[in-house]
């Protein structure tokens, strides 16, 4: 293995009794990289992180973190990582400062270092004023920040963030994203799980999409979007009788199949915005009245729908066929 | 937002005996801070034994004769070591609930992702729960004095008796910890942590002389470590023992049997608990 690989998983399998949580996960995270593990609930994201963080043992396969085997050298792995879970795992009776001190002590760091580092982290996470209040009194966002601060006491080179912003309000989420981006700039390697496509898009350079314990796609956000086709022209016609003519019109600019869903007609295109002008001309010459027209870049949501046949935020994977039907969305800021 | 500028982490020197004691004390300190932050919890853990003293001393007391002691006040002398024994046994329940809560909140996951000694979370929990009993015993002792109980066999013996009680508290805390690691949630832990303690403490000589039990129950009660503990402390405090020719080995050697059973139980349940802890996660 090469020195610039921070996390390597090969064929990870995890059975919980009858249930196969992981069914052969391969994963590579290079040093300094941010990799997003994207998938619906139950896809195996958390199980993967737990194995990498030495909390669970894989049924089969192997994994190294910072060059150490997660099963055979758990202590070495633990010294290199920080873990922040889905819910804020801090002691709510201790103050923010006492929490950081406890975790620093348990990393076996010198008391002087722990004291300075705690003060610095509290400042950085905007918790200085609340530092000497029990964490019980903190808001959800403050607790999550303290949780993340706790995993940074020992300056880990690799950080596992398991759904770091689940349940946070938009403002706290943005704040936490800023912190994570800052850490990455300083060279921390991050493996992040999320079910928010927007979050993976925003933070991760490399995205691994998993579903039913398998990796179903892998690449940068742009690559994944390209994989399901590039831009689409999407129009909404006013008159249902005009749908046929609209399909014909878009057919003149389309690179593939033209899709119809109620009054909405869409077609894959290439050539950027000039194609819009062609589309408008074609529609105009066929006298199609249009209430909405846009050139749409695919979102990760589209990627997910195409790859898995169900939306990313579904509670349970729907037993839906791998259809091409697009999920309608009001806006891009879900 | 500023960037972090601090120097690289400075590690402490590893003690020759390893990190277990250091880490255990760190966790124990954390658990004791909790006690201070939630004084209500401590208060109510004191109320129950005090109520027991008053109930038994004034309600049941007159109806329970103490063999070999005709003094009408004898039951209160007899009762207090029984209450001490029962009370310290309930240290187990706080270990059960405390660990179930730590698991539920994801703290155990975080601890397990740290390079700390694996038994430390359990050692810290059991130590803190036993240490809390010092205060409980202090309050109970005062209550005992108020209802007429006396220490009648010298200070050294009394200190020895308190030490046995704390050893026993530490022992049952390990049993409680082991149970706690199997609890699916804190609510279940609240019930499961207590349910075995009532038969364990009542099937003993803590409140009634053994001779008043049916013969088959006498066997169970005699080998129940609580009986030996309570008898040992009665002797050490110089209180009536209520023994009437009971011929069971543990009750002929109560101090030895108490220490032996504590050592065996700690060895057994710490091994089982640590093994369970290494594999436990919040889900």
Describe this structure in words.
The complex is a heterodimer of chains A (334) and B (283). With 334 residues, chain A is α/β, with parallel strands linked by helices. Helices cover 33% and strands 25% of the residues of chain A. Chain A is built from eleven helices and 14 strands. Chain A has helices at 45-52, 74-80, 96-106, 111-124, 140-150, 170-185, 197-203, 221-227, 243-251, 274-285, 300-308; strands spanning 5-16, 19-30, 34-38, 60-65, 68-69, 81-84, 158-162, 189-194, 206-211, 214-219, 232-237, 259-261, 264-268, 290-296. In chain A, helix 3 packs across helix 4. The longest helix of chain A has 16 residues, at 170-185. Chain A is elongated, with a radius of gyration of 24 Å. Mean pLDDT of chain A is 85; it is low at 314-334. Chain B has one domain. Chain B is mostly helical and 283 residues long. The model of chain B has no long low-confidence stretch (mean pLDDT 90). In chain B, 70% of the residues lie in helices and 0% in strands. Chain B starts with 19 loop residues before the first helix and ends with a helix. The longest helix of chain B is centred in the middle third of the chain and has 27 residues, at 120-146. Chain B contains 13 helices and no strands. Chain A binds chain B through residues 50, 53-57, 75, 78-79, 81, 83, 85-94, 98, 102-103, 105-110, 112-113, 116-117, 120-121, 123-124, 134, 150-151, 154-155, 178-179, 182, 185-186, and chain B through 1-12, 14, 19, 22-23, 26-27, 29-30, 33-34, 37-38, 105-107, 109-116, 120, 279, 281.
Return the structural class of chain A: alpha/beta
Total strand segments of chain B: 0
Q: What is the percentage of strand-forming residues of chain A?
A: 25-35%
Query: Greatest chain-chain interface?
Result: A-B, 48 and 38 residues
CA gyration radius of chain B, whole angstroms: 21 Å
Largest beta-sheet details of chain A: 6 strands, mixed
The CATH architecture name of the largest domain in chain A reads 3-Layer(aba) Sandwich
């Amino acid at each position: 293995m090469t020195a610039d690989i921070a996390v390597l998983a090969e064929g990870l399998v995890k059975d919980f009794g009858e249930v196969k949580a992981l069914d052969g996960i391969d994963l590579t995270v290079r040093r300094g990289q941010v990799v997003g593990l994207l998938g619906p609930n139950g896809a195996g994201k958390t199980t993967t992180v737990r194995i990498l963080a030495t909390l669970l043992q894989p049924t089969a396969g192997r994994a190294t973190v910072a060059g150490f085997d997660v099963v055979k050298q758990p202590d070495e792995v633990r010294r290199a990582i920080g873990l922040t879970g889905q819910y804020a795992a801090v002691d709510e009776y201790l103050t923010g400062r006492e929490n950081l001190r406890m975790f620093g002590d348990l990393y076996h760091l010198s008391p002087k270092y722990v004291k300075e580092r705690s003060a610095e982290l509290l400042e950085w996470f905007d918790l200085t004023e609340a530092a000497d209040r029990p964490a019980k009194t903190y808001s959800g966002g403050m607790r999550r920040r303290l949780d993340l601060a706790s995993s940074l006491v020992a300056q880990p080179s690799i950080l596992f963030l398991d759904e770091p912003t689940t349940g946070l309000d938009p403002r706290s989420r943005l704040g936490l994203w800023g912190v994570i981006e800052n850490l990455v700039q300083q060279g921390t390697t991050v493996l992040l799980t999320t079910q928010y496509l927007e979050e993976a898009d925003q933070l991760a350079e490399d995205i691994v999409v998993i579903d039913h314990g398998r990796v179903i796609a892998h690449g940068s956000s742009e690559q994944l979007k390209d994989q399901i086709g590039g831009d689409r022209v999407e129009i909404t016609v006013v008159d249902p009788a005009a749908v046929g003519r609209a399909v014909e019109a878009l057919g003149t600019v389309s690179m593939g199949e033209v899709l119809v869903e109620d009054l909405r007609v869409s077609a894959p295109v290439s050539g950027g915005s000039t194609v819009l002008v062609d589309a408008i001309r074609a529609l105009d010459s066929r006298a199609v009245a249009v209430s909405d027209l846009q050139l749409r870049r695919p979102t990760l949501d589209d990627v997910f729908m195409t790859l898995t046949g169900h939306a990313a935020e579904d509670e349970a994977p729907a037993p839906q066929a791998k259809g091409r039907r697009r999920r309608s969305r009001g806006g891009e800021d879900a | 937002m500023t960037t972090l500028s601090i120097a690289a982490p400075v590690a402490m020197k590893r003690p020759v005996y390893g990190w277990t004691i250091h880490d255990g004390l760190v966790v124990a300190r954390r658990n004791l801070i909790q006690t201070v932050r939630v004084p209500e919890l401590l208060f109510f853990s004191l109320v129950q034994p005090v109520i027991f003293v008053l109930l038994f001393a004034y309600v049941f007391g007159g109806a329970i004769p103490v063999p070999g002691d005709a003094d009408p006040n004898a039951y209160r002398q007899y009762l207090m070591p029984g209450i001490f024994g029962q009370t310290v046994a309930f240290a187990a329940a706080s270990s059960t609930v405390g660990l179930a809560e730590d698991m539920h909140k994801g703290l155990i996951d975080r601890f397990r992702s740290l390079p700390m000694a694996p038994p430390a979370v359990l050692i810290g929990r059991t130590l803190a729960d036993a240490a809390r009993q010092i205060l409980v015993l202090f309050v109970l002792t005062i209550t005992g004095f108020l209802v007429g109980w006396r220490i009648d066999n010298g200070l050294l013996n009394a200190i020895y008796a308190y030490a046995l009680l704390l050893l026993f508290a530490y022992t049952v805390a390990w049993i409680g910890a082991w149970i706690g690691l199997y609890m699916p949630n804190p609510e279940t832990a609240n019930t499961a942590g207590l349910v075995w303690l009532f038969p364990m403490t009542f099937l003993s000589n803590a409140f009634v002389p053994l001779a008043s039990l049916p013969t088959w129950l006498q066997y169970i009660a005699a080998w129940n470590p609580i009986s030996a503990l309570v008898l040992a402390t009665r002797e050490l405090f110089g209180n009536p023992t209520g023994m009437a020719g009971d011929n069971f080995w543990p009750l002929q050697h109560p101090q030895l049997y108490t220490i032996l059973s504590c050592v065996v139980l700690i060895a057994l349940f710490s091994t089982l608990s640590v093994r369970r802890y290494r594999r436990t996660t919040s889900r």
